[in-house]
Amino acid sequence: MSARALIVASTLVAPVAYLALPATAQAQAPKAAPTNIRGSVVSFANNTVKVKTREGKTVDVTLAEGGRIAGVARAAVTDIKPGDFVGIASLAKADGGDGALEVLIFPPAMKGTGEGSYGWDLKPNSSMTNATVADAVKGVDGHTVTVSYHGKEKKITIGDGTPVVTLAPASTKDLVAGAIVFIPATKNDKGNFVAQQLVVGTNGVVPPM
Predict the structure, then answer these.
(1) Which interval of the chain is the signal sequence (predicted)?
(2) Of 65, 88, 91, 208, which alpha carbon lies 20 to 30 A from 122's?
(3) Is 148 found in the same domain as 196?
(4) Is residue 205 included in any domain, yes or no?
(5) Pairing verdict, β 58-74 and 35-45
(6) Are residues 90 and 121 in the same domain?
(7) How remote is the C-alpha of 48 from its chain's centroid?
(8) Hey, how many other C-beta atoms are within 10 angstroms of the C-beta on 36?
(9) In angstroms, rounded to a whole number, what is the distance separating the alpha carbons of residues 26 and 171?
């Protein structure tokens, strides 16, 4: 795992991490929580990526000087082991508990990043839980993991077909038209989007977060 990828790992957590953790590689917390931009690359030039967002808008995001880029690599539910640190976006299920929308397995060096459970914007009413796996148990409808954070526990079901990824190296060469990106961006004093880091899909694997 490259240093570049490790730095970008800190972007894969809810905005609260920007306020609480030095792992964001920022000397100070930004004045405003980032806007999570999800979509496909239209073009990349002069350190600015033009993105067609999932909402259908087209926005320009400038990668800040020294900004980092990472990709994602496919993983499997069976890769999740007790003691691993994971980020799981989920939705509450009608029959109780949470069902995973996606799972990120953090590299060991990022354990503790953004620990907690909080609101997330992948889908309406979704949440993000960054926590340590207490146990991973095979269930009837998939895998159910028990995760712990700040003395609390939460059970999340990971159904068949749920995207499970980890981090991978990437570069500006991967910012080609059609590539899928996830970019936590903030607006500068001119109202333009600026990102310290972004995540881009490579080798057929897209950022699910």
Answers:
(1) 1-27
(2) 65
(3) no
(4) no
(5) unpaired
(6) yes
(7) 21
(8) 16
(9) 20
Give the pLDDT confidence of 86-145 residue by residue, as tens digits: 999 999 998 888 999 999 999 898 899 889 999 999 999 999 999 999 988 876 667 999
Both 124 and 196 in one domain: the answer is: no
22 and 43 in a single domain? The answer is yes
Q: Same domain for 53 and 13?
A: yes
pLDDT digits (tens, 9 = 90+) for 162-188: 999 998 999 999 999 999 999 999 999
- For residue 109, give Cα distances in angstroms to 1, 167, 196, 207: 10, 12, 20, 20
Query: How many Å is the Cα radius of gyration of the chain?
Result: 17
Do 10 and 58 sit in the same domain of this protein? yes
Q: Can you give the pTM of this predicted structure?
A: 0.80
Q: Which domain holds residue 46?
A: 3-26+33-72+167-200
Residue 78: which of 142, 128, 129 has the closest Cα?
Answer: 142
DSSP H helices in the chain: 3-9, 16-20
Dist. CA 2–CA 28, nearest whole Å: 24
Chain mean pLDDT for the chain:
85
In the chain the first and final C-alpha atoms are separated, in Å, by 20
Residues in Cβ contact with 46 at an 8 Å cutoff, skipping those fewer than 6 apart: none
